[in-house]
Amino acid sequence: MQKEYAELFSAFTQFRKLHMSDLFPNMNHSEFATLMHIGGANKCLNEEKVKVSTLSERMRINITAVSRTLKVLEKKNYIQRTVSAQDRRITYVELTPEGAEVLAEAEETMNTFTAKVLSSLKKEDVIRLTALMNQLYEASEAEIEKRKRRQIYHGHDPDRRTAGHSGRRQG
């Protein structure tokens, strides 16, 4: 079974080498993902603005990394940040008209790319692959949670800051 594990890991690793960011010459993967999450809040939740903290939670990335990406997107005039008048600790973010346009173009690029790539597979294979990927994700997520609980139970809290450990969680 070790050979199969190695081949699966190798197949996953190959996707990281694709340089998907080449499809978007004006933004990197983090910027694209952030715009997608902000746009998703607009579409799915009917929210014009989303809290930066909520964005961080949805993306599973620490708030410092999200803020760094938002700063770049703000300089490009793709997003606008506003501080809550009721609670100055809360910052909201929303797409600008230019950001919405860039996001729409990027989504169209991804849609046509994905359609072209998946057209090389049979529909049944795409459905089966999707089901297997979801199953693998759920099993991985459950195993990570189980290991985190075991670490905390044995006194090794991975979220606790210790000497030589920045306390930052990798998303």
Features:
single chain, 171 residues, mainly alpha, 3-stranded antiparallel beta sheet, 6 helices, 3 strands, 61% helix, globular, disordered C terminus
Structure characterization notes:
This protein is mainly alpha-helical and 171 residues long. It is 61% helix and 7% strand. The chain contains six helices and three strands, in the order ααβααββαα. The protein has a three-stranded antiparallel β-sheet. A hairpin with a 7-residue loop joins strand 2 (79-83) and strand 3 (91-95). Helix 2 (29-44) packs across helix 5. The longest helix is centred in the last third of the chain and has 31 residues, at 123-153. The radius of gyration is 19 Å and the shape is globular. The model is unreliable at 161-171 (pLDDT under 50).
Radius of gyration: 19 Å
β-sheet strand percentage? 5-15%
Pattern of helices and strands:
HHEHHEEHH
State the shape. Answer: globular
Q: How is the topology of this model organized?
A:
Blueprint lengths: L1 H15 L12 H16 L5 E2 H8 L3 H13 L3 E5 L7 E5 L1 H22 L4 H31 L18
Antiparallel strand pairs: 1-3, 2-3
Helix pairs in contact: 2-4, 2-5, 3-4
Short structural description:
The chain has 6 helices and 3 strands, in the order ααβααββαα.
